[in-house]
Structure formats: structure tokens, C-alpha cells
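Morning run. Coffee first, then this:
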Amino acid sequence: MQEVTRRIFLPGAGANPEYWSLVAIKLSHQTENVFLSWPGLGDEPPSPSVQGIDDLVAMVVAEMTEPCDLVAQSLGGLIAVRATVARPDMVRRLVLVATSGGVPVRTLGGCDWRDDYYRTYPRAARWIGNVTEDLSDELRTIHTPTLLIWGDNDPISPVGIGRHLQQLLPNAQLQIVSGGNHDLARTHPQLVADMIEAHLLEHVTFPNRTPFQPPKREFMTGSDLVLREATAADEDTLWRFLAIASYEPNAEAAKRVPVVAAHLRAWPRQGDFGVLATRNQVPVGAAWARQFGPDEGATYYAGPDVPEVSIAVLPEERGKGVGGLLLHHLAVLAANRRVAGLCLNVRDTNPARRLYERAGYRLVDGAAIPNRVGGLSLGMRLLIGPSHRVLGP
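And here it is:
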């Protein structure tokens, strides 16, 4: 049995590194997760080192420094296939979801997605619309156990493409999601996670791991963005992010507002945990959780085992997936601490509410209260059940 030490998630042409977050957090077996993005595609900033599909393949191969599982969506599937052909010795298992996988999509019934894509992502690199590869011969050489997941209502990559890939790949199984469209990881995260879990856990061993060991303190995202656990040494940095989260001009102002300062004073007190995001070693975002007592005057108290989340991202870093990754890894840390859930409050005018909903938070009936600036703040909660019990981020 081959040991596996990392799991690499590849997004589609939307390039968002948080695309797989709702699925990843539901996978229970422990390993290092790497979430890649594609520079210059979707809303991701361009990089002079990425001028075409070959450069994206090279990015993935560079991450395959030890045995790994590749989990890929759409365009990511084509890249995963090419990476597997390049380094078959490094890929233990392969998961391809709603992808072309290197077969002629148009002749198999796929629609032309390019106009809609460029309307959604007008700044995306134009070369992506010209990627057409026929890897039929190469696919026949891939003996890596492969799981194919398709929706039967996907106009971009119809289920016929999945069946064609199943015929070409020597060791593939196809799972079809009834009513599923192209974004199965978003619309059916639990079902997709269960399918992937069963596939990845078959005949897998983990080196030097014991049940419920603490997660790694640093989480690489496959770019210059690094997420790590926040420590006592990060207190000053967290105060700066608390000022952003609370709309205060600076950390000193945040400290003078009791209801704000309560979220960080005496950091870290027992039960506190958090995640710090850095880019090129410069802090760009943070998220942390603190368990309040019923008499501490928390803005939104959800229970004795539901810590309250504070989160902030630098304005220039918003829209790049940082917030989603922070929420994902904070939930992983929460799961390892076996808390019942996480809660937060958000101003009703704050567009970040959509980010929280994508991360699984839901509005709590009756939890809307007046805030200190005269508006409404909405209480939201994320439930953490057995499927969230992960052993590493």
C-alpha cells in the first residue's frame, strides 16, 4: 500500500482556490491539503510565469514532491491528467469531476462555455478559450485508480464525456449525480465528499499518524499565500485585523470599545484558536474564535460550545479567496477541538454575508439585533458534525 501525505485540489477555469473548501472540510481522513489557483484566470491576478496550460501543469507537478491524491474540477481535470502522465509515480489516486480530461468535448455534446465565461471574468487571459487537447492515447496509459463524478444535467461537460473517459481509462469508475450540474462541489458538497472519501480511503495508509493528532501549524495553498495557526506572538497583528473587522480606524481605537476589545483581550485565553494568512510573509488576513460565557455580553451568544468568529482581510486582498480559506481552516481547527459549531455576526449591509453562506454559515432566526452604529447585525452559525472531524487541515 502506498503512503499518501498530501491531497492537491485543482479548481476549474474560475481559478478560485476556495472552490473545493466545502468538500475538503467534510473529508475525514488526515493529510495535508493544498488548494491551488490559476494565475490570470477567473478573478486571479496574472503572473508573468503563466502564459498557457503548460505552465499550469508545471505548477501542479512542482507540488507533487511526495505521494499525493489529485482532486480536480473541469479545467483542473485536464491539468491533473497531464500531471499524472508526467509523474505517474507520484499520483496515488485521481478524482476528476465534470472535466474534459483531454477528450474532444464538442464532439461529445459539450456546449461552448467561452462567451459566458468572459462575461463573468472579463479580465481572464484569452488563451484559456483556445485550449483544446486530445489526450486519448495518453489516457489509456494511466493506471492510477480514478474516480469520475458527473452530473446528468451538465451542459458544459455532459455525462457522455464521463462515460467516454471511463472507457479510455484502464482503472476508472463513474459516479453520476442525479440532477447535478457543472458545480457539483458547490451544489452537492456532502455527496461529492462521500464519493471522494470512499475512493481515497480504499487501501490507503498514512505515515506516522495517530488518531486525532493535532493538525499541522502551517497550511500551504500552492501559491505565495500561506495560512498558519495564530499564536500569542501574533496578538498585535490580530488587533490590527480586529480594527478592520469592527470598522475602527486602528488597533488603539478598537481597544477602547469594550464590546470590540472583548474578542481579543488577553489573547490567547483558554480555548482561543485562530488562523493567520500571509503573502510573501506579510499578514493579509486573519480569523479567530473565542468562546464567550453567557454573562460576558457577546454580540451573539450561540451556546457554551459554539465559539464566536472574528475575521478580516486587507481591502486589497479581498476577492482573491483569502477569506474563504481562512474560514475553511478555522473550521478545521474547530473540528479538531470537537466543538459543536462556530458563530458570527455580520452587518446586514455587509457583502461578506455571501462569503459566510458559501462557507456553510446560515442565518439564525431571531438573532438579528441593533448594532452600535444604528443598523442591524445578523447572527449566523456553522454546524460542525461528525463529517467535519478532520485530522489535519
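DSSP finds 13 helices and 15 strands in the chain. Good start to the day.
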